[in-house]
Specification:
- The protein is α+β, with helices and mostly antiparallel strands.
- The protein has 2 domains: 265 residues, Clavaminate synthase-like (Double-stranded beta-helix); 211 residues, Rossmann fold, CATH 3.40.50.150.
- Helices cover 30% and strands 27% of the residues.
- The protein is built from 13 helices and 27 strands.
- The termini are far apart.
- The relative contact order is 0.11.
C-alpha cells in the first residue's frame, strides 16, 4: 500500500488552497483540512491528490468521508436527483447544447433559503463537457470588506428574506420547484468557526430586505452587489475528471457557469449541522468594557421592553464579548437534573426571558432538547429567535404579571438573566413559574447573589411547601466582570398536597 507523505498545501489566488498528498485515514490531516476550509473558503484536491486507504479521492466513499468532516451528510435536495439509494450522493447534470439550463447563472449561497443552511459541499467532476462548465467562487468575507464603511454599518441591523422558489425561478423553469422554502437571515453574519464577518446576501435566493418597500429593497441590494462583486477577486476552477472541490457554504458564494457544450455531470455530497443557526454580525466597534457597560445599562432600564427592543441586534455580540457564560452553565445543570429527576423522553421546557434564543441553541446542540417554548417581553429579541426557528411556540408576555398559562403545563421552566430589580421581580414571577410546572418538574433560576429579594422568595416558597431546593450553585457568570457573583437555584415543583 502506498504511504502518502505530509499533506501539501498550495495557496491559490485570489483565495483558496489546493491540497496534495491527502490521506483521509490520518486524523491529523482531517483536522487540518477542516481548518483550511474555514480559513480559506475553498479547498481543491486534484484527481490524483489523495485517497482513503485503497479508495481514490473521487470514490463515493471518499466523498462521503470528506463531507463528514464538516457535519452530518445530508440526503435532501428539492430538485437534484440522488445517485445512490441512500440519497447522499447527488447528481448535478447539465446539457448545454440541448437547452437544459445550468444549475445557476447567479452567485448564491447553498440553501440560504433554509433556516439551517448547508455547512459544506463536496463536488467531484464525473463527466466533463469538452469546454466550459467552470465553477466560480467569491469570498463572502472579502465581499463584505469591499463595501463602504457606511454601507457595512447600514447592513448590520438589516435582515433579508431568502426564497427557494423565487430563486430557482430566476434561472430555471418555474415549475421545477412547487413547494417554497423560505428563511430570514441577517444581511451580515458571523462565521461560526472563525468569527469573521460574512456578507449573507446573494443575487439568486435573496428576494427582499425586511422593513423596506420593494423599490427600496431592490435599490439597496443592487448597490450592495455592485460594491461587493469584483471580477479580479473571483476564483474559477476549470475541471479535470476526478477533481474534488470542497466549499464552505457560509464562507463563499458559488456560481456554475452555463457555458458548457455537451453533457456535464458532477457528483455532490452536502454536509449540514441541524443545529446551525446564523448569528448576526454588528461590527468591531467597542471592547469588553463597552460590552459590560451596555449590559449594565440595559439591565437597569426602567422600561426594559423599550430597552431590549433597542439592544436586540447588538445583544449577542455584547454578551459574547463580555464572556457571558451563565446560559451554558444553566442549560448544562437543567439537562443534568432533567435526566435524573424527570421521567420523559421529550420534556417540555418554557424559557422565560428567552431573548434571542441562546439557551435554546445550547439545549438543542449540547443536549438534544428541542421541545421548547419561549417567553419574553421584547418582540425584537424574539424576532431573532423566531427567524432561527428555535422554539415551537412564542409568548410575548411580561413575567411581572400573572401568566396566561394553565397550571402544571411544563416539565421545566428556565429563567436565565431575567431576574433583576428592573426586569422580572421575585413576586409574582417565581410562584408563577412553580404554578405552571408539573408536579416533580424543575424550575431553574439564575440571579446575582446581591439580589436578595429572589433568595428570600425561594425561602418562602420552600417554607410554604410548594417547592424544594434541589441544587444551588454560586459562580462568576461574566468572565470579564469577576467582582459580580451569580447563583443558580434548581427548584423542584411539589404537588399542591404538600402546600399549606
Amino acid at each position: 500500500m502506498k504511504t502518502l507523505s505530509t499533506l501539501a498545501v498550495h495557496q491559490l489566488k485570489p483565495f483558496g488552497v489546493k491540497l496534495t498528498n491527502v490521506d483521509l485515514n490520518s486524523p491529523e490531516q482531517c483536522d487540518r483540512i477542516r481548518e483550511l476550509l474555514y480559513e480559506n473558503g475553498v479547498v481543491i484536491i486534484p484527481a490524483d491528490g489523495g485517497s482513503v486507504g485503497p479508495q481514490p479521492i473521487q470514490a463515493d466513499a471518499s466523498l462521503l468521508k470528506l463531507a463528514g468532516l464538516f457535519g452530518q451528510v445530508e440526503n435532501y435536495h428539492p430538485v437534484n436527483a440522488p445517485k445512490d439509494t441512500a440519497g447522499k450522493v447527488q447528481i448535478l447534470e447539465t446539457i448545454g447544447d440541448t437547452g437544459t439550463p445550468a444549475d445557476s447563472f447567479l452567485f448564491d449561497s447553498n440553501m440560504s433559503w433554509r433556516v439551517n443552511p448547508s455547512r459544506a459541499s463536496v463536488l467531484c467532476g464525473e463527466i466533463l463537457a469538452p469546454s466550459g462548465g467552470n465553477t466560480c467562487f467569491q469570498s463572502a468575507n472579502q465581499m463584505y470588506r469591499n463595501l463602504s464603511p457606511e454601507l457595512r454599518e447600514q447592513l448590520h441591523g438589516i435582515s433579508a428574506l431568502h426564497s427557494l422558489q423565487k430563486g430557482y425561478a430566476r434561472v430555471n423553469p418555474p415549475d421545477d420547484v412547487t413547494n417554497d422554502v423560505q428563511a430570514i437571515h441577517p444581511a451580515v453574519i458571523k462565521h461560526p468557526d472563525t468569527g469573521v464577518p460574512l456578507l449573507y446576501l446573494n443575487p439568486n435566493f435573496t428576494v427582499s430586505l425586511l422593513g423596506m418597500s420593494e423599490e427600496e429593497s431592490t435599490e439597496l441590494l443592487n448597490r450592495v452587489f455592485d460594491e461587493a462583486n469584483r471580477p479580479d477577486q473571483v476564483l474559477c476552477h476549470s475541471w479535470t475528471k476526478g477533481d474534488v472541490v470542497i466549499s464552505d457554504n457560509l464562507g463563499v458564494q458559488h456560481l456554475a457557469r452555463a457555458d458548457n457544450q455537451g453533457l456535464h455531470r458532477m457528483h455532490r455530497v452536502v454536509a449540514h449541522d441541524p443545529y446551525l443557526r446564523t448569528e448576526r454580525y454588528v461590527g468591531e466597534t467597542g471592547d469588553v468594557k463597552e460590552a459590560i457597560s451596555n449590559i449594565e445599562h440595559y439591565l437597569k432600564q426602567d422600561d426594559n421592553q423599550a430597552g431590549y427592543q433597542e439592544w436586540a441586534f447588538r445583544y449577542e455580540q455584547d454578551v459574547n464579548r463580555a464572556g457571558y457564560k451563565i446560559p451554558a452553565i444553566a442549560t448544562d445543570i437543567l439537562a443534568q437534573y432533567l435526566g435524573q429527576l424527570v421521567q420523559t423522553d421529550k420534556p417540555l421546557i418554557l424559557d422565560v426571558a428567552a431573548g434571542t434564543g441562546k439557551n435554546a441553541l445550547l439545549l438543542m446542540r449540547n443536549h438534544g432538547l428541542t421541545n421548547l417554548e419561549a417567553m419574553d417581553v421584547s418582540t425584537e429579541m424574539l424576532f431573532e429567535a423566531r427567524r432561527r426557528e428555535l422554539y415551537h411556540k412564542y409568548h410575548v408576555e411580561d413575567a411581572n404579571q400573572p401568566l396566561p398559562i394553565p397550571d402544571r403545563q411544563y416539565d421545566a421552566v428556565l429563567c436565565v438573566g431575567g431576574l433583576s430589580g428592573s426586569q422580572i421581580r421575585a413576586q409574582p414571577a417565581l410562584e408563577e413559574f412553580i404554578r405552571v410546572t408539573k408536579d416533580g418538574g424543575l424550575v431553574v433560576l439564575s440571579m446575582r447573589e446581591a439580589e436578595s429579594e429572589y433568595t428570600a422568595e425561594v425561602s418562602r416558597l420552600v417554607t410554604t411547601g410548594v417547592a424544594e431546593v434541589v441544587h444551588k450553585h454560586s459562580f462568576v457568570g461574566i468572565e470579564s466582570n469577576q467582582e459580580v457573583q451569580h447563583q443558580i437555584f434548581v427548584l423542584g415543583a411539589l404537588s399542591d398536597d404538600n402546600s399549606d
